[in-house]
Every structure is written in C-alpha cells, then in structure tokens.
Amino acid sequence: MISAFGTRSRPRQVLLAVAGAVLGTLAVLEGLNAPLGPVALLTAGSGLLCVGTLLVADRPLPRRVVWAAAASGLVTVVGALVAQRAENTPGGVETGALLCLIACVVRRCPPRQAVALSAVLAAVVVALPLRLEARDSITLGVMVVLACFAVPLMVALGLCLRLRDTLRVREREAVLREQRLEYARDLHDFVAHHVTAIVARTRAARFAAGAGKAPSAQDLDRMLAQIEEAGSQALGSMRSMVSSLRDTSAPAPTRPPGDLRSLRELADEFAATGLRPEVALDPRLTDRPLPPQVHSTVHRVVQEALTNVRRHAAGAERVKVRVALRPDGKLEAEVTDDGGAPAAAAPADGAGFGLVGLTERVEEAGGTLTAGPRPGGGWRVLAVLPSRTAAPPA
C-alpha cells in the first residue's frame, strides 16, 4: 500500500480502488461485530476513516492523520467504558491501516512532525486491544507485541523509504547538474567557436577599412561569405542542440564525426581568418578505430585551442596541431602557437570557461589536459587520452 503513494497511473488507481473496497468492507464487518449498535457504527466509521486516510496519503497528510487517530482513540475509549464489549476482532483492518500510516508519516512529514504524529498513532494502536471483552494476559501480550515489534518495524520501514526518496532526489539533481554542464560545454564548443570566427572576420574587415584600404567588391563578397558561413554553422549547431533537447527519443547528432581527418576541416575554418595551422596527423590514426569518446574529445581539444589562439594569441605567426600515438599506446593531441597573450586569460567579455569545461571533458574520457606557456614564447595545450583499441608502434 505504501509504495502506491505518490503519482498514480490509471492501473494503480484501479488497484487502489479495489483494495479500498475490500478493506472498507472488512472494516465495516469488524465494526458490526460489536454487541451495541452505536459502538458498532462508531467502530465501522473509525475503520473506514483510517483506511481512507491511508489510501489518500499522498494528499496533505498531517490533518487527516490527526482526525483518523482522534476517531480511533475515541472509539477505543468508548468501547473500553461500555459494559458490553466485543469478544474478538477489535479492529484488525484499522490496526493495519494505522501501522501503515506510521510508516507513511515517518517517510513524508518533517522530522518533528513525524515524531509527534508517530507517537500519537503508536499510542492509539497499542490501546486498540482494550476494546475487547477479555482483559487477560492474551490482551496484554497483543499490546506488548504491537508496542515492541509492530510499531518499531513500521518506523524502520518509513525511515528506509525516506532514505530511498532522499537518495533518488540527490541522484536526480546530480543527473540534472551533469546535463547542465554538458549543455554548457556544447554551447561553448560549438556556438562560441563559430561566433568567435564571425567576430574575428568582422574585425578584420573593419581594420582593413579603417586603414584606408577599402576592399574590392570581390574581397568584400568573400569576407561576407565567410561571415555568412560561420553564422550558418552556428545556427546549425544551435538547431542540433535544440533538436536533441526537444526529442529525447531520437536525439540529433550534436557531436563531431568520429573521423580524426575532420581536424583538417577545423584547420581550414581557422585559416579563413588569415593564419593556416600546420596539421600533423599520425598516419596510423587515419583509419584506425578509436573509442567514440576519444574522437569527440580530440576534436573538442583542437577546436577550443584554435578558438583561444584566435581570441588571445596576438601576433601569432605559426600554429601547429599534432595528433599522434605515444610509445605506451596513448593518444596525444597537442596545439601550439607562438603568439603573445596566454590563452587561459579570461577576456573582458566574460569568457574563460573553455579550458575549465575542456579539462572536465578530457578527465571524463580518462585523460589529462595541460595548458601553459611554452619556453621561448607562445602557448601549448596538450591532451593525453587512453586508446584501448589503438596498438602502440612496432
């Protein structure tokens, strides 16, 4: 019954309705077992109230529990004071419903409220056998069993369910936090890369115009075409992310292709700003199968490093991209330049999260990332990644 609390599907609602009808009928039959008519009606009503409170325990609970406990306690007091009492079945269904309510309040109510309500329910449950005609050792034994075993068991059950709910909430929050980080990385890796290209090409056009060298119609058309291409790529990346967020059953491909030869396409995009990187790709990696996460991470490392060169490496004349296998079988991706300002410096426009997200991505793939100045000037970004399927050189 307790596991049915919360959001209920239609089959569960049908099941609870059937269970409620059965338990309600049993509670009425037990109540009618009392010899006096008024006491029988009170007992049946109390049993129905307790069962109903249990079945709607996902609604606001404390007030309903108080009313159920008060009704049950009142019937117990009346049944204990009258001269004619029932010889058996003082309210077995009612007792079970009250015990389940103990577990429910421990699971769902705040700690102080749960302690108070559990104590009230425990007292009402232990006192239920006083409705019986006989006041002998059997009645006392039933009360001891309820107090020493049944009530603590339901409290423990409620604590276990409360702990499970807490762990589920924390797990869900962790998953959402990881998703937010992933979306932030994707936005930076894809959109910021293309937008930076747009800004760089626009600045180049403005610089040329400001220097008194008005571009020809052909040069102007070429610059605008490059800006248009970068904008289209940014829109395509955004569209892919939105598609994956809107349709989880068929997510759009938001990651770069697994072929490392696509690094040359990155170099061509970067070269459109005026500086062509030197790409050195190990021939053994051209057609060698690598884990998809390694392909994706290498692509992101090179993309982010080239974006930082465009942003921060003032006066760079040489940029080199190198991807190779090390003797120990690990894959090494390195991007170096001979520019000025360090690429890790956060510019005034609020950027600077690229290397942070890149480090997280590389570590998630089981690798390490180092970034820092080179001896003699320039900047170096180096990622070392595991390569389970790539064999070391002979």
Automatic annotation (TrEMBL):
CDD domains (UniProt xref): HATPase_UhpB-NarQ-NarX-like (cd16917)
GO cellular component, one term: membrane
Sequence ranges assigned to domain Signal transduction histidine kinase subgroup 3 dimerisation and phosphoacceptor in this UniProt record: 180-248
Domain of life where this protein originates: Bacteria
Stored InterPro entries: HATPase_C_sf (IPR036890), HATPase_dom (IPR003594), Sensor_HK_TwoCompSys (IPR050482), Sig_transdc_His_kin_sub3_dim/P (IPR011712)
Catalyzed reaction equations: ATP + protein L-histidine = ADP + protein N-phospho-L-histidine
Sorted UniProt keywords: ATP-binding, Kinase, Nucleotide-binding, Phosphoprotein, Transferase, Two-component regulatory system
Extent of the signal sequence: none
PANTHER family from the UniProt entry: NITRATE/NITRITE SENSOR PROTEIN NARX-RELATED (PTHR24421), NITRATE_NITRITE SENSOR PROTEIN NARQ (PTHR24421:SF10)
The name this protein goes by in its record: histidine kinase
Species, as recorded: Streptomyces albus
